[in-house]
Amino acid sequence: MRIPEFIDISEYFYDLPEDRIAKYPLEQRDHSKLLYFNHGSIRDHVFHELPAILSGNYQLVFNDTRVIQARIQFNKASGSGIEIFLLEPFTPADYQLSFGSSSQCSWKCLVGNAKKWKDEILEKKIFSATEAALLQAEKINREENYFIIRFTWNNKNLCFSEILEISGLTPIPPYLNREAEESDNLRYQTIYSNYEGSVAAPTAGLHFSDEVLEKLSQSGVKQTHLTLHVGAGTFVPVKVENARDHEMHMEHIYINRQSISSLLHTDKKIIAVGTTSVRTLESLYYIACKLKSGYRGYKELFLDQWDAYEIEPDISRDEALETILSFMDLKNTDTLKLTTRIMISPGYTFRMADGIITNFHQPSSTLLLLISAFIGEDWKKVYDHALKNNYRFLSYGDSSLLIP
User: Fold this and answer.
1) Which of 8, 196, 232, 356 is the most exposed place for a label (fewest CB within 10 A)?
2) DSSP E strands: which ranges in 132-283?
3) Which domain holds residue 142?
């Protein structure tokens, strides 16, 4: 592959009426519509029919990240409101260590109404059923795209994860144009979410119910889990004419030995549940290519925005997974950690994913570029069909199963 010289983002625009954006989820997760695109043909289904569509020839890969209550609202003594939006941990930088902190931690954050916040320490009294604390927020530094905020609290019985559950709000997408409600705490979360860290849901997974997962297992469809903590950058629109100049956000990936072995020893086609699972799988392949050529990372393994286009892929999927396992043996670890800024755009050759389950994405977005890379110009046919047949769009909208 070559790095594309020009990606005209205007070619990935479509007219999305406001009333087609799903403001709320359906009452039953698995009653959303499912557009089934298979080698150019389109059929309409309901999501709970997925087990009947997929035979035992497939293996689904899920992103089991859990959305945190990433929005914390403070009020200054003057009455001005300040909202702090958590992006990722800074000190300690490890997610689990940060969530387990019992008195203080620092995070990279966005700040709403930042001009109103000078140098004073913000305070917020918080209460649970059994505990109370005074939460304080202090600006430590300002970087180009975020602030470093130190959080402290005066109750060692509460870890930071619990502080967020008590004081934070669900970070529903800005394009919903509404405030988060109590119901979002449950519905903006997949039923298999496990590891805290995302500030946006892997929304393709929101359609799965316990019944659907059980029927998939009964039909012989294997299920594998990995973790990519979704960043706020997933909502950042492409604002440049040439999407090549768009700066991709960084996201953190964790995948254990069992999951890698499951992918290595499968004889099934792999379907990624969501674009985040696609990005994880493809990043895994190209990290393996880098390892094969002698790369060992510095503090941690890293795949930059255009690395995949500059690496000559000369190994199979199985060889890539074997390389990853050998590296884990070398490091004596059962969990691979890496960060990725991979940008998947038209012209990209997929190495891991044979199919995608995904929602319908914003016009002129990097997610739509990924879909176009996967099914080519047929993305227009898929989206035209969805618009003409009353599909609901974006995070709480309907779903699609895409097999090129």
Assistant:
1) 8
2) 132-142, 147-153, 168-169, 195-198, 222-229, 251-256, 269-273
3) 71-169
Both 271 and 336 in a single domain? yes
| Strand 355-359 with 269-273, pairing | parallel
And the tokens for 258? Answer: 């069992």
Query: Going along 231-384, which residue ranges are E strands?
Result: 251-256, 269-273, 301-303, 335-340, 355-359
Looking at the fold, whether 40 and 109 belong to one and the same domain comes out as: no
Q: 68: which 2 tokens?
A: 């945190």
Tokens 């470093």, residue located: 148
Residue with tokens 């594309």: 4
Between strands 301-303 and 335-340, the pairing is parallel
Which among 122, 142, 169 is the end of a domain?
169
Q: What share of the chain is helix, strand, coil (3-state, %, to 5)?
A: 30, 30, 40
* Structure confidence by residue, pLDDT tens digits, 115-164: 999 989 999 999 999 999 999 999 999 998 899 999 999 999 999 999 99
CA 29, 85, 155 angle in degrees (round to 5)?
100
Q: Which H/E stretch holds residue 212?
A: helix 210-218
Amino acid at 379: W
Tokens of 362: 């914003």
